[in-house]
Protein backbone atom coordinates (compact mmCIF):
# COMPACT_ATOMS: atom_id res chain seq x y z
CA UNK A 1 0.00 0.00 0.00
CA UNK A 2 1.32 3.46 -0.93
CA UNK A 3 -0.65 6.66 -0.30
CA UNK A 4 2.40 8.94 -0.37
CA UNK A 5 2.98 10.69 -3.71
CA UNK A 6 5.68 13.09 -2.53
CA UNK A 7 8.09 13.64 0.34
CA UNK A 8 9.00 16.79 2.24
CA UNK A 9 12.74 17.20 2.76
CA UNK A 10 13.66 19.14 5.89
CA UNK A 11 17.06 19.83 4.36
CA UNK A 12 20.32 20.72 6.06
CA UNK A 13 18.82 23.23 8.46
CA UNK A 14 15.61 25.12 9.17
CA UNK A 15 17.52 28.28 10.15
CA UNK A 16 16.96 30.91 7.38
CA UNK A 17 20.20 32.76 8.17
CA UNK A 18 22.23 29.58 8.08
CA UNK A 19 20.54 28.58 4.82
CA UNK A 20 21.65 31.85 3.21
CA UNK A 21 25.19 31.23 4.46
CA UNK A 22 25.34 27.62 3.31
CA UNK A 23 24.03 28.19 -0.22
CA UNK A 24 27.07 30.06 -1.65
CA UNK A 25 29.48 27.75 0.17
CA UNK A 26 27.85 24.62 -1.22
CA UNK A 27 27.43 26.16 -4.67
CA UNK A 28 31.15 26.98 -4.82
CA UNK A 29 32.03 23.49 -3.57
CA UNK A 30 29.80 21.85 -6.18
CA UNK A 31 31.08 23.97 -9.08
CA UNK A 32 34.68 23.39 -7.96
CA UNK A 33 33.96 19.65 -7.80
CA UNK A 34 32.59 19.62 -11.35
CA UNK A 35 35.39 21.81 -12.72
CA UNK A 36 38.18 19.84 -11.02
CA UNK A 37 36.91 16.44 -12.07
CA UNK A 38 36.15 17.63 -15.60
CA UNK A 39 39.66 19.09 -15.88
CA UNK A 40 41.25 15.79 -14.88
CA UNK A 41 39.07 13.78 -17.27
CA UNK A 42 39.75 16.08 -20.23
CA UNK A 43 43.48 16.30 -19.46
CA UNK A 44 43.85 12.52 -19.38
CA UNK A 45 41.69 12.07 -22.48
CA UNK A 46 43.66 14.47 -24.71
CA UNK A 47 47.17 13.85 -23.38
CA UNK A 48 49.20 10.92 -24.86
CA UNK A 49 51.61 11.20 -21.89
CA UNK A 50 48.85 10.00 -19.55
CA UNK A 51 47.91 6.98 -21.64
CA UNK A 52 48.28 4.33 -18.94
CA UNK A 53 45.83 2.19 -16.91
CA UNK A 54 46.37 4.24 -13.77
CA UNK A 55 45.21 7.44 -15.47
CA UNK A 56 42.43 5.64 -17.31
CA UNK A 57 41.00 4.57 -13.95
CA UNK A 58 41.59 8.07 -12.57
CA UNK A 59 39.53 9.59 -15.39
CA UNK A 60 36.74 7.11 -14.62
CA UNK A 61 36.91 8.08 -10.94
CA UNK A 62 36.56 11.75 -11.90
CA UNK A 63 33.46 10.99 -13.99
CA UNK A 64 31.90 9.02 -11.13
CA UNK A 65 32.75 11.73 -8.59
CA UNK A 66 31.12 14.43 -10.70
CA UNK A 67 28.04 12.27 -11.26
CA UNK A 68 27.83 11.31 -7.57
CA UNK A 69 27.87 14.95 -6.48
CA UNK A 70 25.30 15.85 -9.15
CA UNK A 71 22.88 13.21 -7.86
CA UNK A 72 22.70 15.02 -4.50
CA UNK A 73 23.94 18.62 -4.60
CA UNK A 74 21.56 20.43 -7.04
CA UNK A 75 18.40 19.39 -5.18
CA UNK A 76 20.01 20.10 -1.81
CA UNK A 77 21.04 23.62 -2.87
CA UNK A 78 17.68 24.36 -4.49
CA UNK A 79 15.93 23.46 -1.24
CA UNK A 80 18.08 25.99 0.64
CA UNK A 81 16.55 28.85 -1.37
CA UNK A 82 13.11 27.35 -2.01
CA UNK A 83 10.10 27.64 0.29
CA UNK A 84 8.58 24.34 -0.86
CA UNK A 85 11.11 21.57 -0.25
CA UNK A 86 9.25 18.64 -1.76
CA UNK A 87 10.30 15.78 -4.00
CA UNK A 88 7.96 13.40 -5.83
CA UNK A 89 7.94 9.74 -4.91
CA UNK A 90 9.43 8.82 -8.30
CA UNK A 91 12.01 11.60 -7.96
CA UNK A 92 12.96 10.31 -4.54
CA UNK A 93 13.40 6.77 -5.86
CA UNK A 94 15.47 8.08 -8.77
CA UNK A 95 17.76 9.96 -6.40
CA UNK A 96 18.13 6.89 -4.18
CA UNK A 97 18.98 4.73 -7.20
CA UNK A 98 21.52 7.22 -8.62
CA UNK A 99 23.19 7.77 -5.26
CA UNK A 100 23.78 4.06 -4.73
CA UNK A 101 24.79 3.36 -8.33
CA UNK A 102 27.56 5.98 -8.25
CA UNK A 103 28.53 5.21 -4.66
CA UNK A 104 28.89 1.48 -5.35
CA UNK A 105 30.67 2.15 -8.66
CA UNK A 106 33.26 4.29 -6.86
CA UNK A 107 33.78 1.64 -4.19
CA UNK A 108 34.38 -1.08 -6.79
CA UNK A 109 36.55 1.20 -8.95
CA UNK A 110 38.83 1.77 -5.96
CA UNK A 111 39.45 -1.99 -5.92
CA UNK A 112 40.40 -1.89 -9.61
CA UNK A 113 42.78 1.00 -8.92
CA UNK A 114 44.35 -0.90 -6.03
CA UNK A 115 44.85 -3.95 -8.28
CA UNK A 116 46.51 -1.72 -10.86
CA UNK A 117 48.97 -0.45 -8.24
CA UNK A 118 49.57 -4.01 -7.02
CA UNK A 119 50.53 -5.20 -10.51
CA UNK A 120 52.64 -2.09 -11.18
CA UNK A 121 54.66 -2.49 -7.97
CA UNK A 122 54.71 -6.26 -7.37
CA UNK A 123 54.91 -7.41 -11.02
CA UNK A 124 56.48 -4.50 -12.91
CA UNK A 125 57.94 -6.62 -15.73
CA UNK A 126 54.49 -8.02 -16.61
CA UNK A 127 52.54 -4.81 -16.02
CA UNK A 128 51.84 -3.88 -19.64
CA UNK A 129 50.89 -7.47 -20.45
CA UNK A 130 48.53 -7.94 -17.50
CA UNK A 131 46.95 -4.46 -17.50
CA UNK A 132 45.97 -4.48 -21.15
CA UNK A 133 43.38 -2.13 -22.60
CA UNK A 134 40.99 -5.06 -22.89
CA UNK A 135 41.29 -5.93 -19.21
CA UNK A 136 40.99 -2.29 -18.12
CA UNK A 137 37.86 -1.79 -20.24
CA UNK A 138 36.41 -5.03 -18.88
CA UNK A 139 37.09 -3.95 -15.28
CA UNK A 140 35.38 -0.58 -15.83
CA UNK A 141 32.43 -2.38 -17.43
CA UNK A 142 32.17 -4.59 -14.34
CA UNK A 143 32.35 -1.49 -12.13
CA UNK A 144 29.28 0.02 -13.81
CA UNK A 145 27.43 -3.29 -13.98
CA UNK A 146 27.87 -4.00 -10.27
CA UNK A 147 26.99 -0.39 -9.46
CA UNK A 148 23.73 -0.72 -11.41
CA UNK A 149 22.95 -4.04 -9.71
CA UNK A 150 23.58 -2.57 -6.25
CA UNK A 151 21.44 0.49 -6.98
CA UNK A 152 18.69 -1.73 -8.39
CA UNK A 153 18.67 -3.91 -5.28
CA UNK A 154 18.30 -0.83 -3.04
CA UNK A 155 15.47 0.49 -5.21
CA UNK A 156 13.55 -2.79 -5.26
CA UNK A 157 13.98 -3.11 -1.52
CA UNK A 158 12.44 0.32 -0.83
CA UNK A 159 9.66 -0.08 -3.43
CA UNK A 160 8.35 -3.14 -1.58
CA UNK A 161 7.76 -1.12 1.60
CA UNK A 162 4.37 0.56 2.28
CA UNK A 163 4.37 4.36 2.61
CA UNK A 164 1.05 5.71 3.91
CA UNK A 165 2.25 8.74 5.88
CA UNK A 166 3.89 10.73 7.38
CA UNK A 167 6.02 11.92 4.48
CA UNK A 168 8.54 14.26 6.14
CA UNK A 169 12.17 13.19 5.68
CA UNK A 170 14.57 14.65 8.22
CA UNK A 171 17.34 14.85 5.67
CA UNK A 172 18.32 16.68 2.48
CA UNK A 173 18.36 13.53 0.34
CA UNK A 174 16.45 10.29 -0.11
CA UNK A 175 18.45 7.48 1.44
CA UNK A 176 17.79 4.13 3.05
CA UNK A 177 17.73 5.10 6.73
CA UNK A 178 15.42 8.15 6.45
CA UNK A 179 13.01 6.25 4.17
CA UNK A 180 12.90 3.19 6.43
CA UNK A 181 11.79 5.44 9.31
CA UNK A 182 8.73 6.50 7.26
CA UNK A 183 7.60 3.02 6.19
CA UNK A 184 4.21 1.94 7.59
CA UNK A 185 5.57 -1.32 8.93
CA UNK A 186 7.94 -2.60 11.57
CA UNK A 187 11.36 -2.06 9.98
CA UNK A 188 13.50 -3.08 12.94
CA UNK A 189 14.12 -6.48 11.40
CA UNK A 190 15.27 -4.80 8.17
CA UNK A 191 18.25 -3.12 9.83
CA UNK A 192 20.49 -6.20 9.55
CA UNK A 193 19.55 -6.44 5.85
CA UNK A 194 20.74 -2.87 5.21
CA UNK A 195 23.93 -3.61 7.13
CA UNK A 196 24.45 -6.86 5.23
CA UNK A 197 23.91 -5.13 1.88
CA UNK A 198 25.36 -1.62 1.91
CA UNK A 199 27.41 -1.94 5.09
CA UNK A 200 29.07 -5.20 4.12
CA UNK A 201 29.92 -3.81 0.67
CA UNK A 202 31.83 -0.98 2.33
CA UNK A 203 33.48 -3.22 4.92
CA UNK A 204 34.43 -5.99 2.49
CA UNK A 205 35.87 -3.56 -0.05
CA UNK A 206 37.78 -1.61 2.58
CA UNK A 207 39.20 -4.87 3.98
CA UNK A 208 40.33 -5.91 0.49
CA UNK A 209 42.03 -2.55 0.00
CA UNK A 210 43.82 -2.82 3.34
CA UNK A 211 45.05 -6.33 2.51
CA UNK A 212 46.22 -5.26 -0.97
CA UNK A 213 48.23 -2.36 0.42
CA UNK A 214 49.75 -4.50 3.16
CA UNK A 215 51.00 -6.82 0.39
CA UNK A 216 52.26 -3.84 -1.63
CA UNK A 217 54.08 -2.30 1.34
CA UNK A 218 55.73 -5.62 2.19
CA UNK A 219 56.95 -5.99 -1.39
CA UNK A 220 58.56 -2.53 -1.23
CA UNK A 221 61.26 -3.89 1.07
CA UNK A 222 63.00 -5.25 -2.03
CA UNK A 223 63.13 -1.80 -3.66
CA UNK A 224 65.81 0.85 -3.34
CA UNK A 225 65.03 3.95 -1.30
CA UNK A 226 64.29 5.92 -4.48
CA UNK A 227 62.07 3.12 -5.79
CA UNK A 228 60.18 2.99 -2.51
CA UNK A 229 59.67 6.73 -2.58
CA UNK A 230 58.19 6.68 -6.08
CA UNK A 231 55.98 3.67 -5.34
CA UNK A 232 54.70 5.19 -2.11
CA UNK A 233 54.01 8.46 -3.88
CA UNK A 234 51.71 6.76 -6.41
CA UNK A 235 49.94 4.76 -3.69
CA UNK A 236 49.57 7.54 -1.13
CA UNK A 237 46.96 9.43 -3.15
CA UNK A 238 44.85 6.31 -3.56
CA UNK A 239 45.11 5.45 0.13
CA UNK A 240 44.03 8.97 1.15
CA UNK A 241 41.06 8.92 -1.26
CA UNK A 242 40.01 5.48 0.01
CA UNK A 243 40.05 6.61 3.64
CA UNK A 244 38.10 9.79 2.85
CA UNK A 245 35.42 7.75 1.10
CA UNK A 246 35.17 4.66 3.29
CA UNK A 247 35.15 6.34 6.70
CA UNK A 248 31.79 8.09 6.02
CA UNK A 249 30.46 5.03 4.18
CA UNK A 250 31.11 2.74 7.15
CA UNK A 251 29.57 5.28 9.53
CA UNK A 252 26.38 5.63 7.48
CA UNK A 253 25.66 1.97 6.72
CA UNK A 254 27.53 -0.30 9.14
CA UNK A 255 25.50 0.49 12.27
CA UNK A 256 22.10 -0.03 13.95
CA UNK A 257 19.10 1.26 12.00
CA UNK A 258 18.65 4.68 13.56
CA UNK A 259 19.35 8.29 12.62
CA UNK A 260 22.12 10.36 14.19
CA UNK A 261 22.66 14.12 14.26
CA UNK A 262 25.94 13.61 12.39
CA UNK A 263 24.24 11.94 9.41
CA UNK A 264 23.76 15.15 7.44
CA UNK A 265 27.33 16.53 7.71
CA UNK A 266 28.78 13.06 7.09
CA UNK A 267 26.64 12.67 3.96
CA UNK A 268 27.77 16.13 2.78
CA UNK A 269 31.38 15.07 3.27
CA UNK A 270 30.88 11.79 1.43
CA UNK A 271 28.91 13.09 -1.56
CA UNK A 272 30.35 16.58 -2.06
CA UNK A 273 33.56 17.25 -0.13
CA UNK A 274 35.33 14.00 -1.00
CA UNK A 275 34.60 14.32 -4.76
CA UNK A 276 35.96 17.89 -4.53
CA UNK A 277 39.14 16.79 -2.75
CA UNK A 278 39.94 13.86 -5.09
CA UNK A 279 41.17 16.04 -8.00
CA UNK A 280 43.29 18.10 -5.60
CA UNK A 281 44.81 15.00 -4.00
CA UNK A 282 45.70 13.38 -7.31
CA UNK A 283 47.04 16.53 -8.99
CA UNK A 284 48.96 18.02 -6.08
CA UNK A 285 50.69 14.70 -5.34
CA UNK A 286 51.31 13.71 -8.97
CA UNK A 287 54.12 15.52 -10.77
CA UNK A 288 53.25 13.92 -14.11
CA UNK A 289 49.67 15.23 -14.07
CA UNK A 290 50.85 18.69 -12.97
CA UNK A 291 53.43 18.85 -15.77
CA UNK A 292 50.88 17.85 -18.39
CA UNK A 293 48.42 20.45 -17.11
CA UNK A 294 51.11 23.14 -17.24
CA UNK A 295 51.95 22.23 -20.84
CA UNK A 296 48.29 22.24 -21.86
CA UNK A 297 47.73 25.57 -20.11
CA UNK A 298 50.78 27.00 -21.89
CA UNK A 299 49.47 25.79 -25.24
CA UNK A 300 46.07 27.37 -24.55
CA UNK A 301 47.69 30.70 -23.67
CA UNK A 302 49.76 30.65 -26.86
CA UNK A 303 46.66 29.84 -28.91
CA UNK A 304 44.70 32.68 -27.30
CA UNK A 305 47.54 35.17 -27.93
CA UNK A 306 47.46 34.37 -31.65
Describe what this molecule looks like in 3D.
With 306 residues, this protein is an all-alpha fold. The chain is built from 10 helices and 3 strands. The longest helix is centred in the middle third of the chain and has 34 residues, at 89-122. The mean pLDDT is 86.
Mean pLDDT: 86
**Can you write the helix and strand succession as a string?**
EHHEHHHEHHHHH
Summarize the main sheet: 3 strands, mixed
Low-confidence stretches: none
Distance separating the two termini: 67 Å
Shape: globular
Structural category is: mainly alpha
Q: What is the CA-based Rg, rounded?
A: 21 Å
Helicity level: over 70%
Q: How many alpha or pi helices?
A: 10
Strand content: under 5%
Total number of beta strands: 3
In the sheet with the most strands, the strands line up as 2-1-3
Concise overview:
The protein is mainly alpha-helical. It has helices at residues 16-46, 53-81, 89-122, 127-130, 133-159, 176-182, 191-219, 225-253, 263-284, 287-305; strands spanning 6-9, 86-88, 168-169.
Amino acid sequence: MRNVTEFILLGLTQNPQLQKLLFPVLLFTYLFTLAGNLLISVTIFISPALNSPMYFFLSCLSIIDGSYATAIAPKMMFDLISKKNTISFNGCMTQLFAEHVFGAAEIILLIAMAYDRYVAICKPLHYTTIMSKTLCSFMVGVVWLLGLIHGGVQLLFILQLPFCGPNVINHFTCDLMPLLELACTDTRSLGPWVTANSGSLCLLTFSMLVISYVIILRSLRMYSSEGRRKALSTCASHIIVSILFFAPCLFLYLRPMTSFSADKPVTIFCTLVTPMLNPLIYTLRNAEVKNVMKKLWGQLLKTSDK
